[in-house]
């Protein structure tokens, strides 16, 4: 049994191995969707240790630790990073089949040149070695990006954000990676949230205009979208955990907004009408300002409400849901198409059973004018592992050209997450190699080279206009 990291990881056939090492391995990275903190990139402080690098923000690891019964004190609680690291090291050898195991192996190899697997038996040794390397190499957020050949990173910010740190970084010639951001108006989308009314106050202040109606809210959002566009943003990020299309009149939408602003309880119909109108109006603005519209579909937010109240949102208690129907999203795309207001759109269904349906839907709204205008997004969140990536290639590849994909993203809060692009590229090349070896593809190799380079790098530049 091999006990060292293999450079043939996930390359299950010779042809795929050749494709990866020849065409994919050395390509730069464009990480067009993540949740890194802009302040941390700007301040660029040296990491304390591997515990901080791995466990400060990574809810994938937190979820895994909880499943093993590890006390929250060692996950998000008051324990030091060294103590948290030791607890995590105890479970890592037992995460067979889990992406966290492979991610950690890739991260140890790519950033620390460590090939042996981490476990409780060598945790102290690896801790000391990585701590010395962190100090010796002066490992910082930007160092991680440069080490991974990351050309562009797009974070995700709320419309009320001042983009202060992004603007500072844009003016700093010492920063080699271009730091952009996406426009994420979720706080204005969820009119049923108790925080909605308070958020309208924040949006009003940021836009420097009074918000008393749905129309004035949209005006404020356009003002903020214009500000983001002036900075250089060309992409939006819209989290639609659950949306049901519902026809509406603007009078009905204004009435629903007024109730939400007064913190009154809304009916299901009112919520659906408001959210349907909101997506339509935002999409029109995205088209106007040349933004790509990303729709993240099917999240079951805050499933464990008790823990969310104790620890906070986005700490590992969200799940997957399939209540958002293809018909509802189709109705949104159809309405925008009828109005000639459909922007470039990427659909990200989280529920694995909906991937094929949304691939078919996307193809149905491509207009013959823009290449890949509406397309299926990369496998994300619970699907961004080798099995989920491979499953999507085989399932959706039959229904929408894989060659048009804008490729992988990290969707991560970790500065060590860039090997996820490598994992994607390995699975892609293995998939292509298998098709070739089975005789299902026999065009000239130049087309394989072109497709790999496009999927992994060139398509995203062209699609987002970067």
From TrEMBL:
InterPro entries for this protein: Metal_Hydrolase, Uronate_isomerase
Q: Which GO terms describe its molecular function?
A: glucuronate isomerase activity
NCBIfam families per the UniProt record, alphabetical: PRK02925.1
Q: State which Enzyme Commission number(s) the record gives.
A: 5.3.1.12
The enzyme's first-digit EC class, named in words, is isomerase
UniProt keyword Lipid metabolism, yes or no = no
Tell me the keywords, alphabetical order: Isomerase
Report the catalytic activity.
Answer: D-glucuronate = D-fructuronate; aldehydo-D-galacturonate = keto-D-tagaturonate
What is this protein identified as?
Answer: Uronate isomerase
Q: Which family does it belong to?
A: Belongs to the metallo-dependent hydrolases superfamily. Uronate isomerase family.
